[in-house]
């Protein structure tokens, strides 16, 4: 029986982000409070009788097998497994992955019956956890391509809380302890002697699960990529990435009678001179050990870039989406107006 504090905490966390639409089945889960939520977990989701529900989180998730399809999920962490309770639209949206999901019950069309797909990743199968830049997302890796899931929390607090809870639960697993490490100096611990390149910072948990955090080189690579898009690398030394955040771009849906909008996931990067939107691959990098070939697309693909000097105004508080910002730029075709005037009117 969970403590009152834990039940209260899980109830508080059981809130769907207001800007995302979910199906009736997940709406039902989000409406559960207190002990009803715990009983729902034990009656419908838990695979073992004696497992305990420790943490609940709502997050967008991506699967390695379906890298272009982001879906809303209720993530439940127990002492035995991580459960991803998925929006049922995911099953119908990706028909070509029929072998990935067991759809024998998907013919239930009764409006009173809500079907959800639950993906289970047992803690004993967990091999590593990659934390994304600035804790905006994390990727959980198991032993095969079917067992790689990225949680796009878009929130460093939610990422940090989940990682802490996961470490605590992994400490309860009975695994043979790793051999005692030999004392090493900094360079032999983190540096590869063959390439001299710094590796990502790894923390090996007592359960032998690796927690891998990005190092300074990732920011350096990102700054180099951004500078490349800024026409010339001369300002690379002075280039500072001020902000990196996973966001959504709001696109009005054409042909709809109502004022509906679609949300396109984007990575927003702000420097001292430019504002960029990138399409980022959150699931394929770093390459899992079993990958035989590199991913089909680069980690970062430029979607849009504007100069801060062309920014006219910023509108805040756009009603349907809290925390929404509208950037209004002067339409000068991304060129220096004064330079054109000089050439046209005063030059030879």
How would you characterize the overall build of this protein?
One of its GO terms (cellular component) is endosome membrane. There is one protein chain. This protein has helices at residues 4-13, 24-30, 34-45, 89-93, 156-170, 186-190, 216-229, 337-346, and strands at 53-63, 66-78, 81-86, 117-122, 128-131, 138-141, 148-152, 201-204, 210-213, 241-252, 261-271, 274-280, 300-307, 311-316, 325-329. The protein has 2 domains: 4-97 and 111-173, Roll (PH-domain like); 216-252 and 261-329, PH-domain like, CATH 2.30.29. With 348 residues, the chain is of the alpha+beta class. It contains 8 helices and 15 strands. The termini are far apart. The relative contact order is 0.09.
Annotation keywords:
348 residues, 22% helix, PH-domain like, PH_PLEKHM2, PH_NISCH_C, 15 strands, kinesin binding, alpha+beta, single chain, nine-stranded mixed sheet, Nischarin, 30% strand, 8 helices, four-stranded antiparallel sheet, 2 domains, PH_domain-containing_M2
